[in-house]
Amino acid sequence: MHSVHQLFAKINFRNISTNPPLLLSMLLFVLIFIGTLLLKLPIAVHRPISWLDALFFSTSASTVTGLSPFDTNETFTFFGELVLMVLIQVGGIGVMAFAVFFVILLGKKVSVRQRQLMQEALNAPSLGGVIRLVSWILVLSFAIELVGAFFLALRFVPEFGWARGLFYSLFHSISGFNQAGFSLFPDSMGAYVGDPLINLTMITMITVGGIGFTVLAELLSTHRFRRLSLHAQVMIVGTLVFNCIAVLAVFLIEYNNPRSLGPLGLSDKMWAAFFQGISPRTSGLTTIDPAGLSQATLLLTMLMMFIGAGSTSTSGGIKLTTFMIVIAQAFTFLKGRREVVIYRRTIRHQVIVRAVAVISISLLAVLIGLFLLCLSENQPFLVILFEVVSAFGTAGETIGATADLTPFGKVVIMILMFFGKVGPLTLAFSVTKRSHVDIRYPDGEIYTG
């Protein structure tokens, strides 16, 4: 144990700059590196894969994306699938959270620097209560995943037997809760398109994992909507509104589409629209082939993947609250008001600037990735755009681009997945020096619009 603690002390980075965003990015990079080594082992694969493909799978799992150039079940052995599951679990909840929790189990004291890292990772307002929040997050996450695995086992155990059925249940429960698009089935969850138990369990896992840990903590402490924080209120209302709109839109647009909902019965159509309307915003699991969706639904899906779920959740994207703040700012401008007000609460100017910065940097990243892939890939523009947005949003859905990516294209997608998981501002702050200047310059006029 003493040697383990010494190893963790090195992760403290005492001899280098204490830049929390940079350290968090480095921890994720280390996780990806370890995952690559494990997935390259002969015991992990049925047939040898290249180092680039091992790195791609490790990056996709660690960033809880789910994009994969090969079929997961046919490529990896039980050991390889177990490695993917662990990468999804650690990458989803956070490397630093597990590291701190491990130190707590060893009975060691968590340093101020480690608390600062957790504060940065969880967007916590202060250092106080961070360790308690980390412990609570891990315990709650494991509990939710076990409950999800139990309900999935009711279907998978009779179908695949005890050993395989329980592993499939746990794997897909972890994949769903952590918003990863990995599945051990060749058609994702397509075989269960009309199964109420599978649909309800997976959507519940995806929704609970995507709403954010801070919101979950508030919901467990109070059951009155008005007592919730503004963030929790906006997140809950936004999730309900966006999910309802997306489900209804998918159902109406795809109802007669022969490549998606068309051949299904009414009940299966409703379940398929329910799953496809909610899953893409945070997870890449599907019950219908996304390649068969109409262009309008694909555009809606890309918008949902770009937005993502909640802050401090296991998903990527710009985050739902970021999108809603910018929309509120736009309406405030159109109404001629000075301040953005949501639920009788004024949104600070710094928060609005941060939201605009997140969206601006994210759009720039998507456009650069799109440009590079248009140069390297011989695929239709819509297919490439969908792949880029899916990688950035760590959603994991694809309409056929992943399997045919060139080596350069795989590198671009891996960078986008890493960027989407770490977060635009976190990655920007990790490579730039933040300074506070008290100089005030004269106002200047630039015409816009």
Automatic annotation (TrEMBL):
Q: What is this protein called?
A: TrkH family potassium uptake protein
InterPro entries with a match to the protein in the record: Cat_transpt (IPR003445), TrkH (IPR004772)
Identify the PANTHER family for this entry. Answer: KTR SYSTEM POTASSIUM UPTAKE PROTEIN B (PTHR32024:SF1), TRK SYSTEM POTASSIUM UPTAKE PROTEIN TRKG-RELATED (PTHR32024)
Membrane topology field? Multi-pass membrane protein
Keyword flag Transport: yes
Write down the Pfam families for this protein, in alphabetical order. Answer: TrkH
In terms of domain of life, where is this protein from?
Bacteria
Keyword field: Cell membrane, Ion transport, Membrane, Potassium, Potassium transport, Transmembrane, Transmembrane helix, Transport
Asked if the keyword Transcription belongs to this entry, the reply reads: no
- Localisation: Cell membrane
TM annotation in the entry = 20-39, 82-106, 127-154, 197-220, 232-253, 316-334, 355-373, 411-431
